[in-house]
Amino acid sequence: NHAQTKRESAGSYTLSYSQSWDKKADARQADTSSLIPIRIAELGVGSSHRGRMVIGRVSDVDGFWSMSSGVFLLEDLCGQVVEVALYNVTPQHFASNFPVGRELCIVEPYFKIRGDGSAGIRVDQPSEIKTYRLPQDGDGWKLLGNLCIKLCPELAAVCY
Questions:
Q1: Phi, then psi, of 49 in degrees rounded to 5
Q2: Which of 56, 126, 135, 160 sits between 20 and 30 A of 79, alpha carbons compared?
Q3: Among positive and negative, which fits the CA dihedral 11, 12, 18, 23?
Q4: Strand pairing partners for 69?
Q5: Backbone torsions φ then ψ of 2, nearest 5 degrees
Q6: Distance (Å, rounded) from C-alpha 68 to C-alpha 20?
Q7: Range scoring the smallest mean pLDDT among 28-42, 66-80, 109-123
């Protein structure tokens, strides 16, 4: 088993490792309005999904912190869940910025098989995670659905 658990005053943490050389180049897109949504099920292993974004909300109960990254579970619009490892943040920044329920998107996600054999999204630049307000009413979901019809038909049914 490559993971160890340790108890600290801020909560429970899982320690794990990954190959640090297996990462993507910085995202080219900063503006989410030009990105096309992608479902977790569509993510290809070893790929940086240029021009795409995963939309969802943090769904884990306890935050996890490894020696070099914070880890949380992200649930996408279709209810699928993926583990996200966020590098280059302090434990305090991670704990205060990724509470359960936070709505966000990951810009040009990099999906990989990690050192422990599990699949997940690796984010090296915290700026690649943006706050994303999910629609709060039927009209908002309809607008998102209309956008998905044009750009990402696989997600459109979720919005209507």
A1: -90, 80
A2: 126
A3: negative
A4: 87
A5: -90, -5
A6: 10
A7: 28-42
Distance, CA of 129 to CA of 147 (rounded, Å):
21
Structure tokens at 91: 């434990």
At residue 86, φ and ψ (nearest 5 deg) are -110, 120
Q: Are 73 and 56 in contact (CB under 8 A)?
A: no
* Residues forming a β-bridge with 146: none
What is the pLDDT at residue 26? 58
Cα→Cα distances 87→8, 113, 124, 133, Å: 20, 16, 5, 23
- CA torsion sign, 93 to 122 to 16 to 39? positive
| Distance between CA atoms of residues 46 and 150, nearest Å | 27
Under a CB-based contact definition with an 8 Å cutoff, are residues 100 and 83 in contact?
Answer: no
Q: What angle do CA 17, 72, 3 make, to 5 degrees?
A: 30
Radius of gyration of the chain (CA): 16
Query: Encoding tokens for residue 40?
Result: 């977790």
Read out DSSP for 9-73? TTEEEEE----TT--PPPPS---GGGPEE--GGGPPTTEE-TTEEEEEEE--SS-EE-SSEEEEE
